[in-house]
Amino acid sequence: MGVSVVTWPEMPGDLFWIAAAMMALGVWLHVRERHAHICIRMSGSSIRIGMVSIIA
Predict the structure, then answer these.
(1) CA–CA separation, 26 vs 30, rounded Å?
(2) For residue 42, what are the contacts with CB-CB under 8 A and spacing of at least 6?
(3) Which one of 10, 18, 33, 52 has the minimum C-beta count within 10 Å?
(4) Which pLDDT value is given to residue 55?
(5) What pTM was estimated for this model as a whole?
(6) What backbone phi and psi angles, to 5 degrees, belong to 19?
(7) Which range marks the domain in which residue 25 is found?
(8) What distance in Å separates the CA atoms of residue 22 and residue 43, rounded to the nearest whole number?
(9) Strands of 1-56, DSSP E
(10) Which residues make Cβ contacts (< 8 Å) with residue 55, sequence separation at least 6?
(11) Cβ atoms 53, 46 nearer than 8 A
């Protein structure tokens, strides 16, 4: 994006910068996402239920 902004003869409009900020926010939220899943493991006659933390 940096090269195209520098080489294009016109500066992008306000909507471009708003969209770029929203996309950056979306990427940041996606990278920081943390959540847990319920994990059910069955082996033989026993069943284990627990929480598995997923950290990105």
Answers:
(1) 6
(2) 48
(3) 10
(4) 54
(5) 0.52
(6) -65, -40
(7) 2-55
(8) 46
(9) 34-43, 46-55
(10) 34
(11) no
Written as six digits, the tokens of 24 are 């950056």
How far apart are the C-alpha atoms of 2 and 10, rounded to whole Å? 13
pLDDT at 16 over 80: yes
**Tokens in use for 20?**
């770029």
Q: Which long-range contacts (CB under 8 A, 24 or more apart) does 49-53 make?
A: none
Q: Give me the chain's average pLDDT, please.
A: 79
Task: State both tokens at 45.
Answer: 């006659």
* Domain count across the chain: 1
Give the distance between the most distant pair of CA atoms in the chain: 70
State the pLDDT at residue 26.
Answer: 93
Task: Give dist(CA 39, CA 52) in Å, integer.
Answer: 6
